[in-house]
Write a structure and sequence with these properties.
heterotrimer; A mainly alpha (324); B alpha/beta (262); C alpha+beta (353); B: 262 residues; alpha/beta; Rossmann fold; four-stranded antiparallel beta sheet; 10 helices; 10 strands; 40% helix; C: 353 residues; MetI-like fold; 2 domains; three-stranded antiparallel beta sheet; 12 helices; 5 strands
């Protein structure tokens, strides 16, 4: 088991190196750099710009710069963000946390919703409820997250129940601790709903198909023959088998959440990684971009690793294979 | 001996693209208490359908007509609730492919305890362990601890079939339906299982419906034999009578075919 | 072909096919179908709501003929325009009218449009911040959005099938290296990669350059998953007898891949292409929405939605969300079509190409 995890870590390292190097390359290749803006400012002298350049090694060849960056990363110095005027780590950590909070709430909500919905669809197979749910799942995967975000914000604008974006209300600092928590949760609702809709949609189709396949298998018939109740058969025997192959999806879910979350974050004003990446890319803030990509890649790899570990835990057949 | 199960004019029909296909056609017979009744036929004769019908486990798409009388009631008229009482508890079913009758992601122990808990309402740990132990002893399974902790895919076909039988007898059913229980096992294992069946019939006074395609096997183990061909029951007789003077032409062919194999 | 016959049986699939055909026809004949050009702005009609088409006016004695009124506006307390109809004059909607010049199918010069009104503006779906007709812009926008979908998917396919087939066929080290690369590509969150790639090019590019750039970026992200699927198939295909036979006969590896392996992956490839197109449409829409894609005054469904980013606008001018509906519908149609195709080509149903 430990060897298994260790192997995955080994594979992860060149992956991260590759991704970050490619990103570094692309940003550097882009014509112009952050200092273009500074140059336009008459108050900043040429010497200052040159000093900045030297300090951040921006006058050396790309590969060298990359190695400097790598060296610093290991020392936990992630560089300096020009646009925020703060160390990259500071900027990223709070943002990354927000994205993580959003992603986790989406994962929790979508799995809580999808299991009963899929069971419902299977119980009323091919009847109205099933077809209705299938229609909704098609809708869910076809609707772009940004469009859904717009729609929900539009609907929310009609009442005062839900805030229209952001993460905190204006008078946040005056709130008591619990009120603060509540406030953040209120702001979390719309982005979570937006992302959950698509997630539930795609999960539903897979889970429903898995459930149907499992319910047709011999051991389910055997369980019925032994007189186990329908509820028990569906919820324990069938579900466990139907959910197992979906555990790997966790990893990919995490990946697509990071991607999809970015756009939703931007539209809903949720201050997460996505938002900051967009700004960084647009302003060509080199170290900030590198930082966000690094974190995103790391989170992804962790997500995939987590999925593999979970799979090994839950499916005894895989466990035996890895032990050999 | 009294009859504990009576099948009257049982027909099972599937509708496939406007056509009617008879899986079973007007089958009638009775199972006497304490006997082993063999149901012999080739593939597609409807043997498995017969087994499933008795427990009302047929596919939704199947139409049934006729009656199956058990304990004074027609099985087809029972509610889901009543059927749950009968399945496993009063009538058990053993499948052909032992590996396929266990949930691959749950341990044998879990599945065994589950059945005892759900069907016999047993919660006391000691009682449960006792019953499991007794059942394993009866089917002559050793290494009880290891097996209980194992997952189905790590055990052999022979072991699994014994475990399936253990599951069934632990519930003390009146009738056991065995659908080709040895067809997927090695010969040596097969003979062990057959001996097990004979012993169980003696020790527990179990009534068995033994479904097989192997006439010789039926001859060894059964008291009466019923011959099934394309959904119709061709003949049902005491086994020796059947072999001495088969009345139905198909039965004759079957006996001839097996003789040639010798 | 057999496939087509099977497809016709499914009402849902046929419906999707019909819708998509309509959309693509709309894109091709955008000039003809639009009463106005995509960049025709009009100060008098900023943010004008959709024009109501009437059929009855008892005063003017008009029955059963489509017509519109002139839209006038006043400024309210919040400095917003409130539009109202001026019922003093009736402006009939005519068909096959003369309008702005264009080249039908890029060849024939003409100026005939399907419908139009003279004297006032007819905004079927409302107007945007510059007084441009949203309906016309959606039609022109569909050219970009729908074509990027097809072309992007096509290129990804081409690359993906080649890479996948080579990787699966040769196996061993080549396979290993390529698959690591593919996994890496798949692991990178698409959105971030898209942003990073876009950022490596100057922000101000001409629309044509941006169009090509988007295709390149989307293809770059998309080929990985196809390669994986094709590689899996190639791995199993290469064990088949006729492949061994071909090898013994001395057929070169290249030819084997081209003639034997790849054609057998077509059925899966086709399904995968259709199912991936919505992804490209959405990708382009996302980029354009953020201002990194197609720029004004050109239209694409994505950049038409960019005005919705100022959330206030959605409340006051809800019709600007219409392009989104087109995106949803076309995506749904592609998914339905793809799934129907997959069901048809499922080997369990014993129908093959």
């Amino acid at each position: 088991m430990i060897r298994f995890i260790g192997k995955r870590f080994l594979v992860a390292i060149p992956l991260i190196l590759g991704i970050t190097f490619i990103t570094f390359l692309f940003i550097q290749i882009a014509p112009g750099d952050f200092f273009d803006k500074l140059k336009l400012n008459p108050q900043v002298s040429k010497e200052t710009i040159e000093l900045y350049r030297e300090k951040f090694n921006l006058d050396k060849p790309i590969v060298v710069q990359y190695f400097f960056w790598l060296k610093n990363i290991i020392k936990f110095d992630w560089g300096y963000s020009f646009s925020y005027n703060a160390p990259v780590i500071k900027v990223i950590s709070s943002r990354a946390l927000n994205t993580l909070v959003l992603s986790i709430s989406v994962i929790v909500i979508s799995w809580i919703l999808v299991i009963p919905l899929a069971v419902l669809a299977v119980a009323y197979r091919n009847r109205f409820m099933d077809r209705f749910l299938s229609f909704f799942s098609y809708l869910g995967i076809s609707t772009p997250t940004f469009f859904l975000a717009f729609l929900l914000l539009y609907l929310a604008s009609f009442s005062n129940l839900l805030p229209l974006g952001g993460m905190r209300s204006l008078r946040f600092d005056e709130f008591t601790f619990w009120r603060k928590v509540l406030d953040i949760l209120r702001h979390l609702i719309i982005p979570t709903l937006v992302l959950s809709f698509g997630t539930v949609a795609s999960l539903h189709r897979i889970l429903r198909a898995n459930l149907l396949e499992v319910l047709g298998s011999s051991y389910i018939l055997a369980a019925k023959a032994r007189g186990l109740s329908r509820a028990r058969i569906i919820y324990i025997h069938a579900l466990k088998n139907a959910l197992n192959p979906m555990i790997t999806i966790f990893g990919y879910q995490f990946s697509s959440l990071l991607s999809g979350a970015a756009l939703t974050e931007i539209i809903c004003g949720w201050p997460g990684l996505g938002q900051v990446t967009l700004e960084a890319v647009v302003s060509q803030d080199l170290y900030l971009v590198m930082g966000t990509v690094l974190i995103a890649a790391a989170l992804l790899i962790l997500g995939n690793l987590g999925a593999d570990i979970l799979l090994a835990l839950f499916d005894p057949r895989i466990r035996y294979q890895t032990n050999r | 001996m009294r009859e504990i199960l009576t099948v009257k004019n049982l027909s099972v029909i599937y509708k496939v693209e406007e056509r009617k296909i008879y899986a079973l056609k007007e089958v009638s017979f009775s199972l006497k208490e304490g006997e082993i009744l063999g149901v012999v036929g080739e593939s597609g004769s409807g043997k498995t359908t017969l087994g499933l019908s008795i427990l009302s486990l047929l596919d939704e798409k199947a139409y049934t007509s006729g009656k199956i009388i058990f304990e004074g009631r027609d099985i087809f008229s029972l509610s889901e609730q009543d059927l749950l009482c009968i399945r496993g508890r009063k009538i058990g079913l053993i499948f052909q492919e032992p590996a396929a009758s266990f949930n691959p992601v749950l341990t044998i122990g879990y599945q065994f305890r589950e059945i005892l808990r759900e069907k016999l309402n047993l919660k006391e740990k000691n009682l449960v362990s006792q019953i499991i132990h007794d059942s394993f002893k009866r089917v002559k399974l050793v290494e009880e601890e290891r097996i209980l902790r194992s997952y189905p895919h790590t055990l052999s076909g022979g072991q699994l079939q014994r475990i399936a039988i253990a599951f069934s007898i632990a519930l003390s059913p009146l009738i056991l339906i065995a659908d080709e229980p040895t067809s997927n096992l090695d010969i040596t294992v097969e003979s062990q299982i057959i001996h097990l069946f004979l012993r169980l019939k003696e020790e527990l006074n179990l009534s068995v419906i033994f479904i097989t395609h192997n006439l010789d096997l039926a001859r060894v183990i059964c008291d009466r034999i019923c011959v099934l061909y394309e959904g119709e029951m061709k003949e049902i007789r005491e086994k020796e009578a059947l072999f001495r003077e088969p009345k139905d032409p198909y039965t004759k062919e079957l006996i001839e075919a097996f003789k040639r194999l010798e | 072909m057999r496939i087509f016959k099977e497809l016709i049986k499914s009402k849902l699939a046929m419906g999707s096919l019909v819708f998509l055909s309509l959309f693509y026809l709309g894109a091709i004949f955008a000039d003809f179908l639009s009463p106005y050009s995509y960049h025709e702005d009009d100060i008098d009609y900023l943010w004008c709501p959709p024009t109501k088409v009437h059929f009855f006016d008892f005063h003017k004695r008009v029955f059963f003929k489509p017509f519109v009124y002139k839209y006038k506006f006043y400024i309210d307390q919040y400095y917003r325009r409130i539009y109202y109809e001026d019922r003093s004059k009736v402006y009939p909607v005519k068909f096959f009218v003369h309008g702005f010049k264009y080249k039908l199918l890029g060849i024939v010069e003409t100026d005939i449009h399907l419908f139009g009104v003279s004297g006032v503006k007819l905004f079927l779906l409302g107007a945007d911040s510059k007084g441009r007709d949203l309906f016309s812009r959606i039609l022109y926008g569909s050219r970009v959005s729908l074509s990027i979908g097809l072309i992007g998917a096509g290129i990804s396919f081409f690359i993906g099938i080649l890479v996948g087939a080579i990787s699966g066929y040769f196996g061993g080290k080549i396979d290993n290296v390529i698959m690591r690369l593919v996994e890496m590509m798949m692991m990178v969150p698409a959105f971030y990669l898209m942003l990073a790639l876009r950022a490596s090019f100057p922000p101000n590019l001409s629309s044509t350059q941006v169009y090509l750039l988007i295709i390149v970026i989307l293809s770059f992200i998309g080929w990985a998953s196809i390669a994986r699927v094709i590689r899996g198939m190639a791995l199993s295909l290469r064990e088949r007898d006729y492949i061994y036979a071909a090898k013994i006969l001395g057929v070169s590896d290249f030819k084997i891949i081209l003639r034997h392996i790849i054609p057998h992956t077509f059925s899966y490839a086709l399904v995968a292409i259709v199912l991936s197109i919505p992804g490209y449409i959405l990708g382009e829409a996302a980029l354009s929405l953020l201002g990194l894609g197609i720029q004004e005054p050109q239209a694409s469904w994505g950049n038409l939605l960019s005005s919705a980013l100022g959330i206030v606008n959605i409340k006051i001018f809800p019709w600007i969300l219409t392009p989104g509906i087109f995106i949803v519908v076309s995506s749904m149609c592609f998914y339905i079509l793809g799934e129907s195709l997959r069901d048809i080509l499922d080997p369990k149903k014993k129908i093959s190409i």
